[in-house]
Amino acid sequence: MECRGITRFCTQDVIYDGFLIPKGSYIIPNIWQILHNENTCPDPEAFRPDRFLGENPQADPRSASFGYGRRICPGLHLADAAVFMAIAMSLAVFDVSRVVENGVEVIPELDPTEGIVGHRLSDERFRR
Questions:
Q1: What's the Cα-to-Cα distance from 23 to each of 19, 31, 97, rounded to whole Å?
Q2: Which of 24, 67, 112, 127 has the highest CB neighbour count under 10 A?
Q3: Structure confidence by residue, pLDDT tens digits, 16-44
Q4: Which residues make beta-bridge pairs with 106?
């Protein structure tokens, strides 16, 4: 299962990219694909926060992850504040540092995986 957006309802016939979307159709945006599109975000699986800094930063992923238009997530600011508070409170009570083994700091290797929000389809036929 992948992360999907809120279902939309088509109020009139629309032709998009050569396809007819009839009036009355339900549209479910694939937010996961939008956020992992290699055309807009090269190497999306790599943890590179610097891609959002500098002269020409990439688009902010919040614009897609919290929705858009009239139906943008009303909890956007609450979610931002909650994440900030959780991180700030964690950093305030822990001594965050690297492990030292035999007098040498160990730099951990990161292996990011999918979270509880969704799982990638393993069959390549479902990828674009």
A1: 13, 22, 57
A2: 67
A3: 888 888 998 888 878 788 788 888 778 88
A4: 99
